[in-house]
Amino acid sequence: MKKAFALSLMLAIFVLLTPTLAVMQEAVEAEPGQEVNMVLLPKFLGILVFDQANEGAQEAHAELENPGTLVFDGPTPENSVAGQIEIVTNATTQGVDAIMISNNSGDQIAPAAVAARDAGITVVTWDSPIPTAEGEQIFVAQVDFDETGKVLADMALNILGEEGGQFAILSASPDAANQNAWIAAMQEVLESDEAYANLELAEIVYGNDESEASYNQALGLIDKYPDLELIVAPTSVGAPAAAKAMQDEGLCGEGTDNSVVVTGLALPVEMLAYTENGCAPEFALWSFIDLGYLTYYVSYLLATDAIEGVEGETFVAGRMGEYTIEKDPTRDAVLRVLMGPFSVYNIDNIYDELSADEAATPEATEEG
Known about the structure:
Elements: H1 2-24, E1 38-41, H2 48-63, E2 70-72, H3 80-93, E3 98-101, H4 110-118, E4 122-126, E5 138-141, H5 145-160, E6 165-171, H6 177-192, E7 199-206, H7 211-224, E8 228-233, H8 238-248, E9 261-264, H9 268-276, E10 283-285, H10 288-303, E11 314-316, E12 322-324, E13 326-327, E14 335-338, E15 343-345, H11 350-353, H12 356-359, H13 362-366
Parallel strand pairs: 1-2, 1-3, 3-4, 4-5, 5-14, 6-7, 6-8, 8-9
Antiparallel strand pairs: 10-15, 11-12, 13-14
Helix pairs in contact: 2-10, 3-4, 5-6, 7-8
């Protein structure tokens, strides 16, 4: 009887200590030099933020001394959905070890991702996930998506003031999971807090992350809504394109009453001129170089079986330090690694973010 009691007591103590022991376990570190052939797939090619993500991934690739290949490949903007699916399908048949996807295809890419997983390939999403998460092991989230909605709402309120006003949203594409989640989160903030009661959302339009299309959509908004005061563009292509459109129409900048301005998510180097002239008084973003770097580490660790990809696992991502795999609160039964943080830019701090060369290069800020 005493032995049974002692055994039960020891078992109870072990159960109680298990969480503590798990916490005490050292974070997993990657073993350099393992051969992992990898594909980094952006929504499409030709966007600076995705080039920066590739820069970060290439940094991690060299740091880990991976003798395998790292291919940065994406479709054209006009063929983004079918192009992404084709690239994933081809990578699967070519036997790569890991595919890292910034999804612009909604759930249409899920069958290709599932086929890749069935073939034993590591599939990690970054920047924009697969809505149903089918075929996705882990999502590397740049920031918390609910927080994104709050940041967008706060910038709109800061610009329009308590008296509010009419604004519109210029998004990327209707199938972009990240854009849709951010906009939904922003709408929830607007509807749930009286502080935002005077902000009136007129319409959501899509520029498909193409400069010319986004520029034209912005012009269409001011034609359609004469009382419009603000365009919120949660896209690094749409924000500078919309700001250029407002500048070209003489609706903001020196000598105007700043009747229509722009905010959203964009790169400081592409928004400098518009922040200086008042067309984009405030905007936000995170580091895409860090996002590419972190995504590479997560994928390398998974592909080399250093981590299993389960909730609670902690690992080291090189210079970025420790991260823990956690539940994604925006999707059921899905895991994520949360990077963060946000940086909000205005005329007071934008120069701190830019190098002297970037700040002195007018071409970088005039490209809309």
